[in-house]
Design goal:
Blueprint (H helix, E strand, L loop, with lengths): L2 E5 L3 E2 L5 E8 L10 E6 L6 E6 L5 E3 L7 E6 L4 E6 L8 E7 L4 E2 L3 E5 L2
Parallel strand pairs: 2-11
Antiparallel strand pairs: 1-3, 3-8, 4-5, 4-9, 5-6, 7-8, 9-10, 9-11
């Protein structure tokens, strides 16, 4: 059974950088295999795909977030991390880490951007 667990701050101040880490456990689903995705859901809105890191380490980002987003990974720890710079209150959302093809999801973590 694959498990994904997000971790990071629940409250971030505007203009700061948000960093969230996803730890993968169970099965043979290491972060050096498959693609791993970050998705978020702002309050009252739908899911927004943020970006992906593929098994070879290449990354792709939502064009609307690309200038502020990066995804990295630490295969030795089976973790991948989202960095979102210069956050604003519009970045308030529940953030999910997901295994591609969207068959396993973390439980989600609430992030609020507020001063």
């Amino acid at each position: 059974q694959v498990q994904l667990q997000e971790s990071g701050p629940g409250l971030v101040k505007p203009s700061q950088t948000l960093s969230l880490t996803c730890t993968v456990s169970g099965g043979s689903n290491t972060t050096s295999s498959y693609a791993w995705v970050w998705i978020r859901q702002p309050p009252g809105k739908g899911l927004e795909w943020m970006g992906v890191i593929h098994s070879d380490g290449t990354t792709y980002y939502n064009s609307s977030l690309e200038s502020r987003t990066s995804i990295s990974r630490d295969t030795s720890k089976n973790q991948f991390t989202l960095h979102l710079t210069f956050v604003t209150p519009e970045d308030t959302a529940v953030y999910y880490c997901v295994k591609d093809p969207y068959d396993y999801w973390g439980q989600g973590t609430q992030v609020t951007v507020s001063s």
